[in-house]
Amino acid sequence: MKSYSGCFAMLALGIAVMNGMAQSRGFTVRDDIAMVRFSSPSAQVNDDAAKFSPDGRYFAIITSRGLIETNEIESTLSVFRADDIDTYLLAPGSATSPQPRTRTKIAAVLTDEQFDAYGAVISDLRWSSDSRYLYFLGDGRKNDRRLFRISIRGGTALALTPEAYNVARYDVAGNAIVCSLWHSEQPGTAGLEKRGDTDSDVRDVTGERLKAILFPHSQPAPTDRELWIVHNRQGRPVAARTPSPSQRDISWFPEAFALSPTGHQLIQMNPVDRIPDDWSGYDPAPGYEWSRIQSGNATLVAPNSVWRLKQYSLVNLDDGVSTPLIDAPHDYALKYPYGSQAIWSPDQRRVLLTNTFLPLGPIDDEERSGRLKPCAIADVQLPSRQAHCVIAVSDLTAGSSGGILEDSLSFGRDDNEVVFRLKGSSSNGEVRRYTFDGRRWLKEKTPDDEAERDRLIVRTHLRVTIKQSLNERPKLWATNTVTGLSKMVWDPNPQLDHLLFGKASVYRWRDNSGYEWQGGLVKPVGYVPGKLYPLVIQIYNFDESKFLTDGLFPTAMAARQLASAGIVALQVQRRLPHTFNLAEGQAQLTGLESAIEHLTKDGLIDPSKVGLVGFSATCWYVEYALINAPRVFKAATIADGVDYSYMQYHVFGVASSDVEKQYDAMIGVKPIGSAGLKQWTDNALGFNLDRIVAPLRIEAIAPISVLSEWEIYSSLKMQGKPVDLIYIPSGQHILQKPLERLASQQGNVDWFRFWLQGYEDRDPVQRGEYEQWRALRQGNAAEK
pTM above the 0.90 mark? Predict the structure, then answer.
């Protein structure tokens, strides 16, 4: 009887396990949207260390997630005590993880353009010098962003700036607080204002962008940025405007904004109104010769241009007078990787500035030759404004370094020493030290002592970081750098333990030219060796150190979600740098075809069922592939991207000389005259759309995107080819709103399941969609 009882027990256990597996499900788009993401420290970049208070007793974390029910982003600020973490590290393995001592939440719709894959409504976190308060920017439901302060003892966050104002940036020095802000109810664009005696119903639009003419309210518009100081009056903070004149600007990116230690001077990026003739000598980034500065280029000084020339300037907050710190431009307008930072020395006699050119004269020829390229770190002495380059951009980015790690740049033991850390796949954390000998900056031996490195990183014995990998979701870990004890402090997504994930791995292959490609390969949930699966390739970038969910961005990409649906996903790192010619498209196609060939030989995929996704700059790779290898791909998606078409040339090039030059370089000639037009009709993708066979899903984000995608959509539609146009009228380029992400990502999962697997969801809400797709499939079959 005992043996029978054992058999029955084993059988019951087996049934229970099978039932448990049957009840588990794969990771979905909804799970992805609701997943808690680390915003500060960020799980998306290589700056993964928590922000400790100056006294080392506390650290702060910002996390964010999407709320599908309200279509908002919810961000949470959590403050932990270092002593609680120390106690936890010494406790037995069963000890309960420490809880935050302070926590505050904000939920809102992100309205400003985001450049991170997963935006946050709490951002720009700073500690007060006495470690008693935290400052941060918080988005509100009134289309504003306010500056808040919260005590580490808890309580409600105190707003320091008024409602209906958007704070672009701020800084704190001692008891002084200064911020740049604008009123959220300002007119949408300059085009809506009256010009002289002309009413806004009739106006001269010569030289304006088509987007500004047709859709003035749908674009980020220049606003009047004002400088405000927050004063302490009778124990209450009161914000008031400084004497500084306002600036009309459209800056999207974080910019240098550094208050002097005494709180009377400010370094910020000021727009350039007049371009000196000698600035044409500065070299653009490699491959971007067409972006060389020209004194007559109106785009470079236009308030509504994201490529507007700017320079570091010093503002006297007492009288509002602003003076250029360096008579040279920041390097961003010449297409160098963006980043601006200003660091004061404690005695205010020196400042460090990043990514700027230096003045071209009067200097000797050798020095001038070096100054034609930007300086990664420049040292400026005050009040003389004499400048020296600590390290050039070309020297900093050589090898494996990706630049300076955020918040690591500082003066060392005195103002003749500069210390910073490198970021990059293999150099992350390397400390660099430079010293000034009175004439030039010299590189010193890199400190290799771990204690010295930890001092430069966190100034405390604790190091709190995000740990993750391709298959391990981000979690917060703490390490005592003295004892070596290390533990996971917080897993913000325990609900994911009950879900199934397709296994991801780094996949490398060589094409017939010998070039080595790499990407993230995700096998389907429940993968069966020997079974041939459909494949969807997503091409943009790939980071093997990060947990792979969507791909790189949430717009149109859904790698792990496709794997949950029984499809192999390959997130491909595109081949760089850009060459801005048709050979670039062929190089990408060669890599894609070789990936399919290798995966077929590996016995993983069915080569007759391959899909392709492009986003932004990689959309033209997809179009090029569909035109030049029409039978290779079974279905495809392009989302809010460029394709160097004739229509995009005229939509975007007429008021942007940079775009015009870029498109001219791509095709090799302007589309003017019989010879120019012939070259365009032979080579521009829009004139070769008759060769496309695969069903194409097009995602247009914002009104101008509909115009830019209209050529390919209308051409395919009029040819009777299977094409689906999805319009997201108020979306951002990198989609942020949960419902927009759901429409884009889940829409693509459904699209590829339909074309590659013949699958249709039974949800009655989607009945009309599938009826439309079935009609497209019938038409496509009839054409074949």
Answer: no
